[in-house]
Amino acid sequence: MTTTPTAPSPARPDTADDHRQLTTLEGWRAFTSTATIPPELLGAARWAALSEPDRTLYDEQRLDYHTRLTAVGTSTLRHVVNAGRRLTLLNRHAVSARRGLILSGAAGTGKTTTITQFGKAHQAIDRRRHPGVDGRIPVVYVTVPPAATPRMLAVEFARFLGLPLTTRANITDVIEAVCGVAVDTRVSLICVDEIHNLTLATRAGAEVSDTLKYFSERIPATFIYAGASTSNATACSPAPAAVRSPAGSA
Question: Bridge-partner residues for 140, per DSSP?
Fold first, then answer.
């Protein structure tokens, strides 16, 4: 009996989970734990023998794989990973004056990709150091909202950690909850993206900067900031994707 070859089923079919945001714990964990598996490459004869529906499914699987290709290890990405790794080691037992890193550059130069890839690498290292330990959240990834206020930023941290918030919770309650959970879950790296949305020339921007500094003092973690180079941004450099490691993390 002759059977028609069928295309292998997609490794990761499209689901609602694919659209989880990195700024949530579920989305971040999916991003850091999902492996990209290349589909089986069929020869010309096997491909031609597929039925039309199976051929369409196979082609879609290959296209889906190519949209999930891993990031290229550019010199900037390697530099950030190496510098960030050194900082996390230096800060591991620091009580105060922990060092941070600022990544700045023009739009579209891969700043978000770079810090998320470093976060992914850091989380993998943490898993290897603590195998089988549940309840750890080694990495927090947040973005600074446009026209941010201190409470808006604190809520971004709380949203990532999945903390339930009520409209009656004031900023002090939110910050205390965030710091408590971050310490209990052993957060050791905090990536703050879109830092250019923070404008120090305004009162709100200065207060958000103070809030970040307060977080960096309360949470024993390495802070990494990324944002576009603008005259109003806290992280500003004339060179694309410049990396700076300041003495303080804020």
Answer: 190
Beta strands in the chain (DSSP E): 101-105, 139-143, 189-193, 222-228, 242-244
- With beta carbons less than 8 A apart as the criterion, state whether 157 and 178 touch: yes
pLDDT of amino acid 47: 86
Q: What is the pLDDT of residues 146-177, one digit of tens each?
A: 989 999 999 999 999 999 988 788 999 999 99
Q: List the CATH code of the domain at 75-244.
A: 3.40.50.300
Whole-number mean pLDDT of the chain?
A: 83
Q: What pLDDT is stored for residue 246 in this prediction?
A: 42
CA distances (Å), 58 to each of 36, 43, 55, 70, 138, in order? 16, 12, 5, 21, 37
Residues 227 and 225: their CA atoms lie apart, in Å, by 7
Query: What whole-number percentage of the chain has pLDDT above 70?
Result: 84
Q: Single out the residue of 81, 24, 88 nearest to residue 221, CA to CA.
A: 88
Structure tokens given for 13:
């079919």
Domain ranges of the chain: 16-66, 75-244
pTM: 0.78
Decide if 39 contacts 65 (C-beta within 8 A). yes
